[in-house]
Design a protein that fits this description.
CATH topology: Porin
CATH architecture: Beta Barrel
Helix content: under 10%
Number of strands: 20
Largest sheet: 18 strands, antiparallel
Order of helices and strands: HEEEEEEEEEEEEEEEEEEEE
Strand content: over 45%
Structural class: mainly beta
Number of helices: 1
Length: about 350
């Protein structure tokens, strides 16, 4: 890890002393999307109308030596608030050189491959606003982090390697002059690795692994540290797209943790998408998450999400209908729900 830190620092220093840069171009992006959602089953929520409320502000430029840079930050009002307050989050600065890309990220730049199996027509239903309780491996984007990515085209089969390091468990959205961030009691530093490959036309393979040290708990030791990994493959041929994925996560367990506590999770996912002509697409996805507890005799229940979706595009507008059946929400037996989302999205 010390060598990786040195590489990142060296590239940043080179960037700082580069002769000059052209004026950066500014951009604003977002999503003009409205949704209507319904819930039924073992939930108490009401029908919901929502509209996209995030805007991303970006800037980019090029140095005289050919290096490029890109900056982005987002305005993201608090979800569910009666009066939305504008919050700046998800910021990152990327510097691309012939030797690779360096990224400095706050609440951004996730490297997990756990969700890269999705061939959904609209959205991965376990990643919507409703929390069905599925546990995924830790992602470096939870923390302020720095990354290095190998150059595109350097390795065979389209392989790109990415490595990231978060020096602390801080989840603060810090400004550039932030110092002396309070230590986390549960998470120390985090390291994460990702490999992307495209060995044949139409096939994308993603692999990730992360591990976190324990936090600053005086005199405490851990029985098990937080670590996780995922592999996902997606293959597109003609009108079909097929995705499969497997993910594993072990939770941090301090000494003395109750034996009926969750120890690890194994997620098995598959997804099938089909394009009906140029404008219509449909999909079927199933996600299964199996929980394992410290005591082998403890009864556990698998959490599953099954989703059917359809999307139709005409001009710059897309209309999508998605339904999900959630079984054993948060791994509790017979806690089931059904979610339906109707979405209208305008391209801009």
């Amino acid at each position: 890890m010390k060598r990786i830190n040195n590489i990142i620092v060296s590239l940043l220093v080179s960037f700082a002393i580069a002769t000059s840069a052209s004026a950066g171009a500014l951009s604003v992006s977002g999503s003009a999307k409205a949704t209507y959602g319904t819930m039924s089953g073992e939930v108490n929520g009401d029908n919901t109308i929502g509209i996209a409320n995030e805007l991303a502000f970006g800037a980019s430029g090029e140095l005289d030596n050919g290096w490029t840079w890109k900056y982005q930050t987002e305005i993201d009002p608090s979800a569910g608030a009666a009066t939305a307050d504008a919050v700046t989050d998800d910021s990152n600065l990327n510097i691309t050189t012939p030797y690779g890309t360096v990224a400095i990220c706050v609440s951004e730049c996730g490297l997990s491959a756990a969700l890269n199996f999705s061939a959904d027509a609209y959205v991965l239903m376990s990643d919507t606003g409703y929390g069905e309780g599925k546990v995924e491996p830790s992602n470096i984007s939870s923390y302020a982090n720095m990354q290095y990515h190998t150059p595109s085209g350097l390795l065979p089969f389209g392989i790109v390697g990415k490595i990231a390091y978060a020096p602390s468990g801080s989840t603060n959205v810090n400004s550039s002059n932030a110092q002396n961030t309070a230590k986390s009691a549960t998470v120390g530093n985090t390291k994460m690795y990702r490999i992307e490959a495209a060995p044949i036309d139409g096939l994308a393979v993603n692999i990730s692994y992360s591990e976190s040290d324990g936090g600053d708990v005086s005199g405490a030791t851990d029985e098990q540290k937080d670590e996780g990994g995922a592999i996902a493959a997606k293959y597109a041929t003609g009108p079909f797209t097929i995705g499969v994925g497997k993910a594993y996560s072990s939770l941090r367990l301090a000494d003395g943790t109750a034996t009926d506590s969750a120890e690890s999770y194994i997620n098995t996912n598959y997804s099938l998408g089909y394009s009906i002509g140029d404008n219509m697409s449909v999909s079927y996805t199933k996600e299964k998450s199996a929980q394992d507890k410290m005591a082998a005799a403890t009864v556990t229940y698998d959490q599953t999400t099954t989703s059917i979706q359809a999307a139709y595009t005409m001009g710059g507008m897309t209309i999508a209908l998605a339904r999900a059946d959630y079984d054993n929400i948060s791994y509790a037996n017979n806690e089931d729900a059904v979610e339906t989302i109707l979405a209208v999205t305008m391209a801009f």
